[in-house]
Amino acid sequence: MTEAEEKKHTKHELERMTVKELRMIAAEETEAVGIHAMKKDELLSAIKEKRGIPEEKAPKEKAKETELTVTELKAKVKELKTEKEEFRRTRDRKMVEVLRRRINRAKKRTRKLARA
Question: Is the pTM here over 0.85, yes or no?
C-alpha cells in the first residue's frame, strides 16, 4: 500500500480495518509508543488524532445522552396504554401487539434505571 492510498482512508474504512493493518498505519504515521500493545479503539483514536479526523462518541454514550428519566418513561407508558386502548376499541390487533411490546420495553427500562 502506497502512502497516497493510506491517506485516502476515511474514518469508516479505518474502522473496518483489522488490528494488524491499523498497527502498520500507526507505526508509519504516528510517534505513539507501545503500538503493538494497543487495542483497536486505541489505535483508531491515535490515527484519527494524527490525521485530524474528529472523534465520534460511542453508540452507548450517545444512548445515555438521550435516555429518559424514570418519571418521563412512566408518563410515556401511560400515553402508550391510552393509545393501546384506542386501537383495542378499533380491533386493530397488530397495533395492539406493537404497543404492548413498547410498553413492556419501557417498563423494563424504568426498572433498570431504578436499580442503577
Answer: no
